[in-house]
UniProtKB/TrEMBL annotation:
Coiled coil: none annotated. The keyword Hydrolase does not apply. Residues 104-166 form the Ribosome maturation factor RimM PRC barrel domain. GO terms for biological process: ribosomal small subunit biogenesis; rRNA processing. An accessory protein needed during the final step in the assembly of 30S ribosomal subunit, possibly for assembly of the head region. Essential for efficient processing of 16S rRNA. May be needed both before and after RbfA during the maturation of 16S rRNA. It has affinity for free ribosomal 30S subunits but not for 70S ribosomes. Belongs to the RimM family. This is Ribosome maturation factor RimM. It comes from Peptostreptococcus stomatis DSM 17678. InterPro entries: PRC_barrel-like_sf, PRC_RimM, RimM, RimM_N, RimM_N_sf, Transl_B-barrel_sf. SUPFAM superfamilies: PRC-barrel domain, Translation proteins. GO terms for molecular function: ribosome binding. NCBIfam families: 16S_RimM (TIGR02273). One of its GO terms (cellular component) is ribosome.
Length: 172
């Protein structure tokens, strides 16, 4: 098994808010409320400095306003605009039994429930109705697999294997 990703991109700092050092973050997570329990995060590639969260509130359906400890002026946070924020696995949220981090799924083998090899998972497209798995075959053909229990009955992260039950036309 390959090493698991240790840091997850949580969002991007898009602007400041107010004059007291608050920053607005566009989240890259589907669980926007997780920011309210966030203790710290990292910015960019620097994994030494933890930016401590004083408070976080939802600004809208697609942004969060965060106040960092020790950053009390607009000038102190302006250099952070445009940078990505990351959390380590320790600060990631607890997954339900049927949930997986996309980063842990990328690269896993995909085969039918009969054992026919299809390819490797290369991407996950996220839509409102359901996710779609992008699988690249050995012939470089891409297959779009709806992430539903009917079509994807088994995902084994330990053995890095996804089993699918394709409907007619799915693999044509």
């Amino acid at each position: 098994m390959t090493d698991k990703l240790e840091y997850f991109k949580l969002g991007k700092i898009v602007t400041t808010r107010g004059l007291k050092g608050e920053i607005k973050i566009y989240p890259h997570t589907d669980k926007i409320d997780r920011f309210k329990d966030l203790e710290y995060f990292f910015i960019g590639n620097d994994r030494e400095k933890k930016y401590l969260v004083e408070r976080a509130v939802t600004a809208s359906n697609n942004s969060i306003v965060v106040k960092l400890k020790g950053y009390d002026t607009i000038e102190s946070v302006q250099a952070l605009i445009g940078k990505f924020i990351f959390v380590d696995r320790e600060m990631s949220y607890q997954l339900d039994e049927d949930e997986f981090f996309i980063a842990d799924m990328i690269g896993m083998d995909v085969e039918t429930i009969e054992g026919q090899k299809i390819g490797k998972l290369v991407d996950v497209l996220q839509y409102a109705a359901n996710d779609v798995y992008v699988v690249k075959g050995e012939d470089s053909k891409e297959y779009l697999i709806p992430a539903t229990y009917e079509i994807v009955p088994d995902i084994d992260t330990e053995n890095r294997l996804m089993k699918i039950k394709p409907i007619p036309g799915l693999l044509d």
